[in-house]
């Protein structure tokens, strides 16, 4: 459970110098409600890049993506995988390639969605890049939904609810990458925090696979710090790249109304920020997605502003200037 402090601190110092590779993904067809395609524009309007620069980070804005139709594709019909599967596939490939380019250039990718299908592209690229370095990937999925449905189990057919199953190596969903295999994430290297809307079959699949799922009741019972320690404590930064995927619907809809699939009973303001602050202090985060911002549902940009504030907390914005200790120190002392 306890993080190695020397390892955490050395990972932290090396991460500080790494430029942030900002990638916007204006794609929302894998969600049930239209509008997440406007997420990157809203994030830019409320000053995402400026907020990171203001915290001392070098930001390389790689712009917003547009998919290019690949000529090497097979003509195989993948529409049975879910709604708009063909479009999802084109975007996932484009996201994958851009994220891989950012990693190859030594940047720390920050992907702004778009709906949660964007993580199929970003995390598969992270997995491919990490494998080249002989590393594995741990994924922390902060979300009201575990997104572990498959084409067979999904009640809606919306593919933003299948991202994590894809990343864990679901054989049917592998067709989204059209034969470009990537190293699947081991289910035991996946953790979910904040879930409170889980379909029956999805629940069974998570349990069978061994995904660590800290639902909202676990947040109630144990508190954020304990749960984040539980996730981070098993990660060795010398062997493992940590990817964080933050779905804004994990936050309570009263604070974050601008999402496509709001569910009552979410994280409050301090719980959401505290997760990000602990992740920053750990020095372990190698890449980040922030997804499901839907400006069509937002109220005067409050969810967009919250998103920028939360990203700021993960990138070092502190309430006060007191020195902070990596997660686990109190337990080890
Ligand atoms: Mn999600």
What does this structure look like?
This protein has a single domain (5-332), classed as 3-Layer(aba) Sandwich (Arginase, Chain A), CATH 3.40.800. It contains 12 helices and 8 strands. It has helices at residues 5-16, 39-45, 48-54, 85-104, 118-132, 163-167, 200-209, 216-222, 224-232, 269-282, 302-314, 329-332; strands spanning 20-24, 59-64, 108-112, 136-142, 190-195, 212-215, 240-247, 285-291. It has an 8-stranded parallel sheet, sandwiched between helices. The longest helix is centred in the first third of the chain and has 20 residues, at 85-104. Bound molecules: manganese (II) ion. The site of manganese (II) ion has 5 residues, from loops.
Ions, cofactors and other bound molecules? manganese (II) ion
Order of helices and strands: HEHHEHEHEHEHEHHEHEHH
In DSSP terms (H or I, runs of 4 or more residues), the helix count works out at: 12
Q: Give the low-confidence spans.
A: 1-15, 329-333
Fold-level CATH name: Arginase, Chain A
Mean pLDDT: 92
CATH-derived architecture? 3-Layer(aba) Sandwich
- The helix-and-strand class reads alpha/beta
Helix content: 25-40%
Write down the oligomeric state: single chain
Q: What does the largest sheet look like?
A: 8 strands, parallel
Bin the strand percentage.
5-15%
Amino-to-carboxy terminus distance: 13 Å
Q: Please count the beta strands (DSSP E, at least 2 residues each).
A: 8
The level-1 CATH class: Alpha Beta
Spell out the CATH superfamily: Ureohydrolase domain
Q: Taking strands numbered 1, 2, ... along the chain, how are they ordered across the largest sheet? A: 2-1-3-8-7-4-5-6
The value of Rg in angstroms is 18 Å
Number of domains: 1
Catalytic activity: L-arginine + H2O = urea + L-ornithine
EC number: 3.5.3.1
Pathway: Nitrogen metabolism; urea cycle; L-ornithine and urea from L-arginine: step 1/1
Enzyme class: hydrolase
């Amino acid at each position: 459970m306890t993080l190695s402090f020397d390892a955490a601190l050395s990972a932290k110092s090396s991460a500080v110098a790494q430029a942030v590779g900002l990638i916007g993904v204006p794609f929302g067809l894998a969600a049930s409600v239209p509008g997440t395609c406007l997420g990157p524009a809203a994030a830019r309007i409320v000053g995402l890049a400026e907020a990171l620069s203001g915290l001392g980070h070098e930001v390389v804005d790689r712009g917003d993506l547009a998919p290019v139709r690949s000529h090497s594709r097979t003509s195989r019909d993948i529409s049975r995988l879910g709604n708009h599967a063909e479009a999802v596939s084109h975007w996932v490939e484009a996201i994958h390639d851009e994220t891989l380019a950012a990693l190859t250039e030594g940047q720390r990718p920050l992907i702004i969605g778009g709906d949660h299908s964007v993580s199929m592209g970003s995390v598969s690229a992270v997995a491919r890049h990490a494998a080249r370095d002989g590393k594995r990937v741990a994924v922390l999925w902060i979300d009201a939904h575990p997104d572990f449905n498959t084409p067979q189990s999904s009640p809606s057919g919306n593919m933003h609810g299948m991202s994590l199953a894809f990343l864990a190596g679901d054989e049917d969903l592998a067709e989204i990458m059209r034969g470009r295999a990537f190293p699947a994430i081991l289910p035991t290297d996946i953790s979910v925090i904040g879930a409170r809307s889980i379909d029956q079959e999805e629940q069974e699949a998570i349990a069978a696979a061994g995904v660590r799922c800290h639902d909202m009741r676990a947040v109630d019972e144990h508190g954020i710090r304990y749960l984040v320690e539980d996730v981070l404590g098993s990660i060795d930064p010398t062997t493992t790249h940590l990817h964080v995927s933050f779905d804004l619907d994990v936050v309570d809809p009263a604070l974050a109304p601008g999402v496509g699939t709001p569910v009552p009973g979410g994280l409050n303001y301090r719980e959401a920020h505290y997760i990000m602050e602990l992740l920053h202090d750990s020095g372990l985060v190698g890449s980040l997605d922030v997804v499901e911002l839907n400006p069509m549902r937002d109220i005067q940009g409050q969810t967009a502003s919250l998103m920028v504030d939360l990203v700021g907390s993960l990138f070092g914005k502190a309430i006060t200037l007191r020195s902070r200790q990596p997660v686990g120190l109190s337990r080890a002392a």
